[in-house]
Amino acid sequence: MHSTAHRPTGFVAARDYPSPVVRVIALGFYDGPTEGVLQTTDGAAYRFDLIAEEHNPDGLDDRTFALRPLPEGVFEEVAELVGASAAVVVVPRWPVAGPDRQAEIDRRLDALLASARPSVWEVRCRELMGTITVTPPDRS
Predict the structure, then answer these.
(1) Domain boundaries, the chain
(2) How many angstroms separate the most distant Cα atoms in the chain?
(3) What is the DSSP letter of 132?
(4) CA 3, CA 120: separation in Å to the nearest integer?
């Protein structure tokens, strides 16, 4: 488990600093989270999507994620929908409900994720809760 004692409260454009991420709900996973929602020490929530990956033959790949701010309360709603515990990193098992309820959960989850605003940060890291480099998104 990563300590929060020396984490910044939110994201800043900088290189190689401790991630402010304290909770992750991975809605996609391939050798690590590829998409989902995260929460920072200040309570802000973001949708994250893998946008680039560079293979590292010596360990974890370098990944770049686009971060899109979510409205207040969305992280908690997603956690409740997928049955996420208070654990730091959650990878829900799909389907999370029976067929009747799963379609409803999928629709609600899609709506919650669609509420994300445009990307405000790109985060390059090996682990979302490890050392990160943050830049504004490339708008070219």
Answers:
(1) 14-134
(2) 46
(3) E
(4) 25
Provide, for the chain, the percentages of residues in helix, strand and coil under a 3-state DSSP scheme, each rounded to the nearest 5. 15, 35, 45
The continuous run of DSSP H or E covering 75 comes out as helix 74-81
Give the CA radius of gyration of the chain.
Answer: 15
β-strands 131-135, 14-18 pairing? antiparallel
Tokens of 52: 């680039």
Q: Which residues of 48-78 are buried (b: 16+ CB within 10 A; e: fewer)?
A: bbbeeeeeeeeeeeebbbbbbbbeeebbebb
Walk along the chain (140 residues) and give the pLDDT tens digit of each residue: 444 456 778 999 999 999 999 999 999 998 889 999 999 999 999 999 999 999 888 878 899 999 999 999 999 999 999 888 777 888 887 777 888 888 899 999 999 999 999 999 999 999 999 999 999 987 66
